[in-house]
Amino acid sequence: MCTTVELAVWATDHLPGRAPSRTMPYRLHILGTEDHAEMVRQKLEDILENLEEVSRTEEDIAEETRELAKADDDTLAKRKTDEKIEQTADEQRDNAEALKDLAEEGAKALMEAMRNPAFDEQTLRDWAQNLQQMNELADQQMKQAESKLGQAQQSSDPQEKKENLAEALENEEEALDELADLRDDFRDHGRVNRLFIRPILVLERPD
């Protein structure tokens, strides 16, 4: 159950005859621990849903890279192939940025969870570690894959192209393994202890 209290302040000027002025209202949403935990769980579900989308996109990128790496020398020499490699590199960069945005959203949800005793300390520590892993994954494997794709696009030697594409694919497959582990961990974070009933205050500032 959620109780909402609206607060506002009236101020009177010393000048005679001037009407009192009123501040913008602030709303206090008073949540029970379980309701607040449910709100945090919903945020986790949103993050998990978006994390699954990042994973699906990474799978598509890996499949595109795999097909490019299998191409024969004549195909690799074509301008259209270079354009496809460049497009795949752009997709990899965008997907890494999407993962970093998710880590930022996860950090906000973690701050909310830290206010709720239903989330134990170990879960919060694991959660923080997962957010760090998300940032590292975006900055390392995904960034390295983008870099190798860029090198492949710029190379005029078919063998060098294949080597760079193979290295990009290796980084992408490592990213997919880590994304699968992260999805499992975020599912676990949604489980909370229902041992406390202390209310939680959530302040809604005016627009």
What's the quick description here?
The protein has 207 residues and is mainly alpha-helical.
CATH topology descriptor = Four Helix Bundle (Hemerythrin (Met), subunit A)
Count of domain modules: 1
Count of separate DSSP helical elements: 5
Helix/sheet category? mainly alpha
The biggest sheet amounts to: 3 strands, antiparallel
Q: List unreliable stretches of 5+ residues.
A: 192-203
Task: Output the radius of gyration.
Answer: 25 Å
Overall geometry comes to: elongated
Strand segment tally: 5
Q: Measure the end-to-end span.
A: 25 Å
Strand content: 5-15%
- CATH classification, class level: Mainly Alpha
Strand arrangement within the widest β-sheet reads: 1-4-5
Mean pLDDT: 84
Order of helices and strands: EEEEHHHHHE
What do these coordinates show?
- The strands form two sheets. A three-stranded antiparallel β-sheet has the order 1-4-5. The chain has a two-stranded antiparallel sheet with strand order 2-3.
- The model is unreliable at 192-203 (pLDDT under 50).
- It is built from five helices and five strands; from the N terminus they run ββββαααααβ.
- The protein is mainly α and 207 residues long.
- The protein has one domain (43-204): Four Helix Bundle (Hemerythrin (Met), subunit A).
- Helix 1 packs antiparallel against helix 3 (79-113), helix 1 (33-70) packs antiparallel against helix 5 (158-189) and helix 3 runs antiparallel to helix 4.
- The protein has helices at 33-70, 73-76, 79-113, 121-154, 158-189; strands at residues 2-7, 10-11, 21-22, 26-31, 200-204.
